[in-house]
Structure prediction request, 350 residues.
Amino acid sequence: MTGNPPGRPAAKFKGPLRSVVILARECFGDAIMLTPLIAALKRDHPEASIYVVAFRQVIFDFFRQDRNVAGVYHAKRDLKRYLLEFWPRKYDVLFNSKDHRSTSFLLQSRLIRAGYKVGYRNNGGEQLFDCLLDMPAGTHESRRNLALLKAIDGEMPGTPRPYIPEMPVSNEVSALLDSMPQDAYIGINISVGTPGGHRALEQWSELIRSFPDERFVIFSSPGDLEEKRKLEAPHPNVLETPSTRNMYEVWKIVDRLKFLVTPDTSLVHVAACSDRPLVALYRFNPADSRLFAPLSTRQEVIVSPTEDVVDIGNEMVTLAVRKLLEEICLPVNSGEDGATDDRPNLAGQP
Prediction:
């Protein structure tokens, strides 16, 4: 699980642990998959201050709202604050969460002053770190991140649920939440952040028409709002909903759903924050379907025969939705996904 940098003797962490710096990866899904580590750090080391270094504004904004995080710094935009407030300090532990070569991450790993630096083997800068993490192929990203606590404490913790930090909720979304019964709607997410993740509107329409007795809500990014409206308008069993402005608003709606149908995107991990069931559609990419697999207890995963989810047959998606509708009426055994029952409020989150 942990190893030595090439040509250097073993280095064990010597406490106490008062401060941890985490270099955060750049996508929403990666940010959500860091929250189990942050929750576990606050649970096991409540006296430690956690600092996050972000490389994209959306990740800075995400962690800026997290009450478990003592400070967030943007390594590229707000250099004055970074250099004057963050950089002069010395920290107990630095964790580079990138498991492959990244010039920006390796540069920060070198520049930030920390007594104990942890990174992954084969990230291109092994000599910078006091401890290298050796993870088995296919290890889920949330477990890879939690390996930091293996390096610090000598044992691997259980996996807390991910969470979304509390953010402002618009009047429109508040009104929607007040009017939505719990477990009454199926969610459909039409937006993705990677090539090959989109399905045609007609495919989504066919799915909706296959379940005339069910009610649906549609999720989309701001850039896909026009597509969302085109899908809402012709179907009487689709509720027209306001555009969401942040990931917390998305989670508040997802938390009320019967279940979610989504391509492989951050909403897979949003659903896991409150253990909402889901149907997840993956491109043919074996690494992604393992490393970023759903953590929800009830799940149906469909992998496309190609690198495009549009090639997943409509009948397969319909069958998965029908199966999940039948299964959610059955009792659930706890611990099926290997996660503990720690929920989003594990360390003071709402």
Notes: The first helix runs from residue 28 to 44. The longest strand covers residues 113-120. The chain has twelve helices and 13 strands.
